[in-house]
Amino acid sequence: xxxxGLPKALxxxxxxxxxxxxxxxxxxxxxxxxxxxxxxxxxxHDRVAMHAVRTALLQTQAAAAGLPLWPVPIxxxxxxxxxxxxxxxxxxxxxxxxxTIMAFGDLFLEDVRHYRETQLAxxxxxxxxxxxxxxxxxxxxxxxxxxxxxxxTCIDPKQIAASFAGREFDESLLADLPPGADPCGERGxxxxxxxxxxxxxRPTPVERGEIVTRDGFVxxxxxxxx
Length: 226
Hints:
Distance between the termini: 42 Å
Radius of gyration: 17 Å
Number of helices: 6
Structural class: alpha/beta
Order of helices and strands: EEHEEHEHEHEHEHEEE
């Protein structure tokens, strides 16, 4: 099924910069119609899985993007079996809605891409990776220069300093990252919340709340700002 002559696409949405930039790229390309944002929600903490963004902020962000959320609740902890069952239900819903494409903001991790392709095989839904293979140093700079604004919500202190939690994703942060860290955090160095940029009709102002360490990661709780 197509709308306005374009295939319907669902975008895997982490609330972070890469998925936000993927939305921007897809809208610029104009060869698919993004009709929803698919997000896994930790139902115990009511937050975006791994990024730990409050669901209320996620909802405000999705409204700013002008797209409906497709929340996928998962337990915590979550086994692979439970995760795959939740995603299978979301895929069936997408099939029923006539969606033929699922887009991802992955950059270069081959195992992650292979997993997504395997999960969608034989579903009639084609995986799409608009940012795949782009040099991440240049991509990070391009995002910032293009108006994307984001905050770091989760960092892996085994890879970068805990003090990065809550910081702005900007040129200063890129300059301060250790040499081995990926500028886009693709290896799990950090995760972000995108609060402004060309993919949004309006910003979602945030301020940094409490910094907590849990399960080996450091999280910055983002709160709505006036």
